[in-house]
Amino acid sequence: MTREEIMQLSADECEARKQAIRSEMDAEGADIEALSNEADTILERLNAIRESAEQRAALAAKVAAGEVGTVTKTFKEDPKMEETRIFSAASPEYRTGFLKTMLDRDDLNEEERSAVAYVATTGDSTNHTGYVLPTTMLNEIWDLIDDQHSILGDINLYRTGTILQIALRSGISQGDATTVNENAANDDEINAWAQVTLSGKDFSKHVNISYAMAKMSLDALQAFLTSEIAERLGAALAADVVTQIATDFDSTNNAITTAAEKKLAFAEVAAAMGKLKNAKGGVVVYARRETIYNYLVGMVDTTGRPIFQLNAQNGAEGTLIGAPVKVEDAVAANVLWIGYPKQVVGNMIQDIMIESDRDIKKHVITYAGYARFECKLAAAKAFAKITVDQGT
What we know:
The chain has four domains: 1-64; 68-123, no CATH class; 135-161 and 199-392, no CATH class; 164-195, no CATH class.
């Protein structure tokens, strides 16, 4: 493993890798020097995790004692009146304190320092040293992601903050709903279940800005980070959803390739929609903009009537046989995915956060956006794929 990969491991993952290294060292032809260097890096990572845990414990003690995280104000008009505030990621003081921290400024006031310390204690991932995003920024990022990648706004997305297990029924061997004689009991139901664990995959995007650029205003920094992270992390998350659908759908029965080159027929779209099962919510069609306007907009039925109807509601370009057609750049060119997006279960184990670091040699500040996410298509026949044949 590289140093960068090791420095992202959790404590449990480090211990597991230590055990593996011991076994690898006994193997014939083992690269002892490389394994030894890897073991040293793992020890460094474990020490960093322990140090972070100790710092958090100390901060937690101060929070419990009321030394940080709360600020008591005395009103000049009436010295006997006091106001005690408990900060959160939604607090304005946390937003300004967070942005000042990102710019490595030392002019945080008492409230900003307390807000950053308190939220860092209660809201950060235990395996990372970054800061949770202020609520306003996080909402802006997700709004932008939803605008740019419609499929992420349509799936069943859970922000659990933990590993999620879902049970998928693969069949009913006995006891499905049926007619029975009067006063007769239905057979006991016997289901075949598959347990799926959504433990997450890491998604990361970093940007570098010069020391000179770091003199920007707080609002400018917020706009810059929001735009950059939303654009690139959103693209990666949407691509993962489409890839997972392609992995999980019934590729044997629910995949169609057009009979004619570079032409999509109404009957082929109707056939794809007819293959869908396990309805949940409404059917949606996803494709790139060029695919929509090359093949769908001019489509007609057997009588010559237009099939595609312009309709800008719900972020759609229009409707096709009653289904909204949405632009999704994560879909491959000349491909349409048609299905029930609510059958995709997504688990956000770590919501979007930001870490920062300085390179004193290059005089740049690096901002890294990070999220941990995983999804699963719960029903294989809930999606169908149409590929427009491009010929040879």
